[in-house]
Design goal:
The structure is a single chain. By secondary structure, this protein is an alpha+beta fold. 48% of the residues lie in helices and 13% in strands. The strands form 4 sheets. Strands 9, 10, 11, 12, 13, 14, 15, 18 and 19 form a 9-stranded mixed sheet that branches. Strands 1, 2, 5, 6, 7 and 8 form a 6-stranded mixed sheet that branches. Strands 3-4 form a two-stranded antiparallel ribbon. The longest helix has 46 residues.
């Protein structure tokens, strides 16, 4: 089979696909009957554990208290019996190294008794701790290659779960991953640390208001955007396989211009995938709530109900893994890259973040009169202050080679971090700044002018979809997080930034209230100072507009356009001191994270360069030369000569661009240190690749369809 016939074969395959049907799902399954059936959740724990053991473990999970090691054996035995009854044969510690993915090493329950007879065993020690080889995971210099020891430790705040395999189940114990010396080697440990720091300072602030709470937790609802293409097309695109995105590809005549895909009717084949994915996720206790078509063709979104941030982070990793597995069953390829297709919308992970106290109250709920809700205003201003002060670190937390292609494009927030609050809250803050009364706001209603339809309650903010960090009623939406990324580190740094601000507020209010003034006056004075100090971070306009870049510079907001620029924020002395004070990263861990992220950036770009070089040599130039030969045998008419001349120009241009790219890559390779290398790649190589793409796409549009071997955009995006 030739490459050209391979593409035609793929088209035939795609257009003859049968929709995967599962009789169990087609008959209808009530979510309540299966939800959490593969998790060792609170209900299962209550059934399987002695009352005292359950109470102790429940306090650990719900109240954030330290695990009592004395109960480990009883918990492990109950977990083992439950897992065996469900068909499990192996167990693993499931953890999240700095690859952005998850990791697991499976061990069988099988062991032998003193008489050599086989038996299943799972001890408390095995539940609490395991020892995967740490030598091949990114460490950023925290350990040398010959130091292989690393430890995983059970995180009891996240439910133990079972993963269905083709021929059985595996018990997964959510865990943290640390080095022999106790350094964090994973993404989960800093998140858990940040949650403790945030809780401690938020509880202290609430105590000033006479509210005694055991803890405060950040809650999170991450919306996950993704693309689906047929696996036949995917298999013929080396760039999708190696880099996760198309490195060449001419824009089709129809993309998203008609705005007809967003929230449109979901195709049966895609709906079948969504339904099976949700079924698997429900069994894992993941509260998926929403599914819909996104803006670009073949782009979709799923979103869950809010959960505590560490559980939401774990669940988002499981969502990505589960969707990838299910996609294969439907002969689909899941694309999570931030910009898999040029010229249309990319994908992000919109992290809806809020704060909840141990009584279940949302601390970012403004109520009907936010101007009179001092507690709300303190927490709101703490977020503004944290984001303003640590904007550079938040940009570093979302930095990646993939996200650089999305941030600042005309469908995503720019690299400038700003906050959108909406008209009502801006009026309240402006009134506080000016010493005026904000006046009661209340709930506005919109009359639709149609007798049969009810009035619609107007939210206290509109949605600014261009903002990287927007208040949306009783939560903030961190919209700039990459679609492929673990959300643990971005949320950890957000938690830490807000925790720092709350600590400063608590100290300032206490000091002012102790100087004869009333508590309310002290709070208002601190709020007013924060309103003035954070005014620069508030922006209500179009973040996509070029004028905003100029205005942001005037305000002194950082515009870290590339990942190497952004990642440098991690190792600034003030950043390292701040993260160490919040106990999120030690100074050594901050340095290590920086090196891991920089090395990953370099490797990602280098993989793309090699892939692009192969695409040009194996696909683009051969197609161009075949077309040139065809034109050479087509006579000497003016039209033919014009086409030949244009193609010759493109071939010459592409050849020159490839030579220039090779020189730039060579210069980057000779650079001293990963920092200089990454900057050269970002400034020269990535730009050169974009120029090559433009020329290659012009060649695609100039050659006969029969000569083009790569699946085209209109095929991948619309034939599914």
């Amino acid at each position: 089979m030739t490459e050209v016939s391979g593409r035609l074969w793929a088209i035939r395959e795609v257009t003859s696909r049968q929709i995967r049907s599962i009789p169990e799902l087609a008959a209808g399954v009530q979510v309540g009957q299966i939800f959490g059936c593969n998790t060792f959740d609170a209900g299962t724990m209550r059934q399987k554990l002695p009352k005292a053991v359950f109470h102790s473990l429940h306090e650990t999970v719900r109240r954030g208290r330290k695990l009592d090691p004395a109960i480990a054996n009883e918990v492990a035995h109950a977990v083992k019996e439950w897992a065996l009854a469900k068909g499990a044969t192996h167990f693993c510690h499931w953890f999240q190294p700095q690859t952005g993915l998850t990791a697991e090493k499976h061990d069988a329950f099988l062991t032998f008794d003193d008489e050599g007879m086989p038996m299943e065993r799972f001890s408390g020690a095995q539940l609490i701790q395991s020892e995967p080889d740490a030598s091949s995971f990114p460490s950023g210099g925290m350990r040398t290659t010959f130091e292989a020891r690393g430890y995983t430790a059970w995180d009891p705040s996240s439910p133990i779960f079972l993963i269905d395999g083709p021929n059985g189940k595996t018990l997964c114990v959510p865990s943290v991953f640390i080095s022999y010396h106790g350094d964090a080697l994973d993404n989960k440990t800093p998140l858990l640390r940040s949650m403790e720091a945030l809780s401690e300072r938020a509880v202290a602030v609430l105590r000033l208001f006479g509210e005694h709470r055991e803890r405060v937790v950040p809650t999170l609802g991450p919306e996950q955007e993704y693309f689906l293409v047929d696996r036949a097309f995917y298999a013929l695109r080396p760039d999708l396989i190696a880099a996760g995105r198309t490195l060449v590809g001419a824009k089709p005549p129809k993309g998203q211009e008609l705005e007809d895909h967003y929230f449109g009717s979901i195709k049966d084949r895609i709906l079948a995938f969504m339904q099976e994915s949700e079924h698997e996720l429900f069994k894992l206790g993941i509260p998926i709530k929403t599914r819909h078509n996104e803006v670009a063709p073949s782009q979709y979104e799923t979103a869950p109900i809010f959960e505590e941030a560490n559980v939401a982070s774990d669940h988002n990793q499981m969502v990505m893994e589960t969707m990838n597995r299910v996609a294969r069953r439907h002969n689909l390829a899941l694309l999570l890259h931030e910009k898999p297709f040029a010229g249309i919308n990319g994908s992000g992970k919109h992290c809806n973040w809020s704060l909840m106290d141990s009584e279940g109250r949302n601390l970012l709920e403004p109520g009907a009169t936010p101007e009179r809700n001092l507690s709300f205003l303190v927490f709101l201003l703490a977020v503004l202050k944290g984001v303003h002060k640590r904007a550079g670190l938040l940009r570093a937390a979302i930095a990646s080679a993939g996200n650089d292609h999305r941030l600042g494009a005309n469908e995503a927030p720019p690299a400038i971090i700003s906050v959108f609050l909406g008209d009502q809250l801006n009026r309240v803050l402006d009134a506080i700044e000016n010493g005026e009364g904000a006046g009661p706001q209340g709930i506005e209603r919109l009359s639709l002018g149609i007798q049969k339809l009810p009035e619609v309650a107007r939210d206290n903010t509109d949605r600014n979809r261009t903002s990287p960090f927007a208040f949306t009623g009783n939560k903030f939406e961190f919209r700039a997080v990459p679609s492929t990324a673990s959300i643990a580190v971005p949320i950890a740094l957000l938690n830490a930034a807000v925790a720092e601000a709350l600590g400063e507020f608590e100290a300032a209010i206490t000091t002012r209230a102790g100087k004869k003034g009333s508590f309310q006056d002290a709070v208002l004075a601190v709020i007013k100072e924060a309103v003035v100090a954070t005014k620069a971070i508030r922006f209500e306009g179009n973040n996509y507009a070029p004028e905003w870049v100029v205005e942001a510079k005037r305000r002194g907001l950082p515009n870290l356009r590339t990942s190497p620029e952004a990642l440098a924020e991690l190792v600034k002395p003030d950043s390292k001191t701040f993260l160490a004070k919040m106990k999120v990263f030690t100074e050594a861990e901050s340095e290590a994270r920086y090196h891991v992220k920089m090395e990953r950036y370099v490797k990602d770009v280098e993989i793309e360069v090699e892939t692009l070089t192969g695409l040009v040599a194996a696909h683009v130039l051969p197609a161009a030369l075949k077309q040139r030969a065809l034109l050479g045998s087509a006579g000497n008419s003016k039209a033919v000569q014009g086409c030949a001349k244009s193609l010759d120009t493109l071939i010459g241009k592409l050849t020159s661009q490839m030579e220039a790219l090779e020189e730039d890559v060579e210069k980057a390779g000779k650079a001293t240190g990963v920092e200089k290398k990454a900057l050269l790649l970002a400034q020269k190589v990535v730009t050169g690749m974009a120029e090559i793409r433009e020329t290659a796409d012009a060649i695609e549009e100039s050659v006969a369809d029969a000569f083009w071997t790569l699946p085209k955009y209109h095929e991948m995006l619309f034939l599914v």
